[in-house]
Amino acid sequence: MEDTKIKQIIEALLLAAGKPMTLDKMLEVFEEHERPERDALKTILQEIEDSCTDRGFELKKVASGYRFQVRQELSDWVGRLWEEKPQRYSRALLETLAIIAYRQPITRGDIEKIRGVAVSSSIIRTMLERDWIRVVGHRDVPGRPAMYASTREFLDYFNLESLNDLPALTEIRDMEGLNQELTVEEEKPGGNVIEFPGETEVDEVHVPDEEELAAAAIGTRSMDEILGIEPEETADDGDEQENADAEKVERDQAEADTGPEQDQADEHADPVAEDSATNDDEDDSQDSESDEQQYNS
Q: Of 26, 69, 247, 265, which has the highest C-beta tally within 10 A?
């Protein structure tokens, strides 16, 4: 079969499938006598990808295979076709998902230890329902807590081919103001209205839920703290510690040198104090005798 015909078939398959297709799945649709070689199929896919350079869509390889998708820079216009707004996720959910992606497999308790706050059950449930994470086992400790890891669906959703495509931790560390740039926070629900007798107008009181409280608690934390990265010791920190240690040694040596001298001074001072006390007693005795003689006279 000619390459041009194979190319048309592959394009039709990708459009009709509605989901990523692997190379094996594409090869299955061909009869044995017309089936192209695997390397030849890869070459055809590369040609299709190159032909989409100036188009509004692209051929993208993700974890589950190949798919056609709208270019990201055009999403604002395409999104206007749907009245329903795209799902927004809280900062707490995204941070929990990031920890699982980078530190998997990991238990819920480990996540809470890294974040410093409790992980809401709704967060875990949402990620499980979306097939972004799955239970891969249980840790052999009392209670046997579940261990979570990311899935292919997670990679597909975030347009990743593998976990190697995740940003390196060093790149995340260099990002300044990352928390302030997160604009995907969940919309706050309407608050509860409290009525007071005799008042015609009342303020709307918003009662924060567990996720909002968790987000507020970690709003000022750096990504290093969120992911449990130990801070690197700088040269200045090392110099300051060495200077502090040297000063402590000098103080200890000075105290050791002055100790014997102080003891000798105390020894010399004691006899003088005793003589002074004896002289005072003798003077008091003489004064008493003199007073008695004057009285008898």
A: 26
